Amino acid sequence: MRALEIVHTGPLALVQDLGRPGYAHLGVPPSGALDVAALRLGNRLVGNPEDAAGIEALLGGLTVRATAPCTVAVTGPLVPVQVDDRHVGSHSAVSLREGQTLALGHPSAGLRSYLAVSGGIGVEPVLGSRSRDVLSGIGPEPLEDGVSLPLGAVTGVPAGADVVVAPSAPERLVVPVVLGPRDDWFTDLVEGLGAWWTVTPQSNRVGLRLDGPPLRRANTAELPSEGLLTGAIQVPPSGLPVVFLADHPTTGGYPVAAVVRRGSLGALAQARPGTSVRFRSS
At a CB cut-off of 8 Å and minimum separation 6, what does 25 contact? Predict the structure, then answer.
């Protein structure tokens, strides 16, 4: 059986694909890779469909061993990649022979690297997806040392790109948002969101927690729970926003001041604690 053995997981390694949208009515969030563009690129490089499952590795440190020949690619932030004792680099297709190991170093910027493998990770899907949802516990368990992951059948050929430039993970982000649906519950919201906020260490796949000058409420009434989208900026009583990411809850009882445009979610997924973020209405 074609498989990938996990030698070392690093801080956290999860199986992720493009998620399981359409189950919010059952209380199930969409989940999936936080940096969608990175996973799609990795799959293209190794000849997979873009929605094939790969491994999302937090802060590198992942080491895997191939039990059969396969093609792999590491995407996301620039990160050292080594096959046995040879440095091969990221953002390119690499062939592994049976028994060879691939190890990720630690990215100097950004948070999440993606390992795509020809055939994709072939664990059993749950509700149509192989993604791990850390909020509800749906999907394959977080990876552990010694686990063997089955690989699917190879259906395509590697993309053969000569040069793929790794995206940067800047220390400051300006993020476009659409105001609402509860923007009228706040005073001077555009100015408040436009201040510089700092990503806190309490952030995770559920949401990005921010610190800065609290947003001020114009309406202090209670709000019944409402549906939430990925990218929703919810404001609890503290006035400090939470930007919900892919494993977010499906409803919430605090007002949503704005929603991040989908194209910027990948940059937020790579924002380390200490990164400065401001929001621009568009």
Answer: none
Cβ–Cβ < 8 Å for 44, 69: no
Is the distance from CB of 217 to CB of 189 less than 8 angstroms?
A: no
Residue whose structure tokens are 């949401």:
207
Q: pTM, whole model, 2 decimals?
A: 0.96
Of 265, 272, 271, 267, nearest in space to 245 by CA: 265
Which burial class, exposed, middle or buried, applies to 246 when counting CB atoms under 10 A from its CB (0-12, 13-18, 19+)? buried
Spatial contact of 54 and 121, defined as CB atoms under 8 Å apart: yes
Omega within 30 of 0 (cis) for the link into 181: yes
What does residue 37 show for φ and ψ, rounded to 5 degrees? -60, -35
120-173 pLDDT, tens digit each: 999 999 999 999 999 999 999 999 999 999 999 998 888 767 668 888 889 999
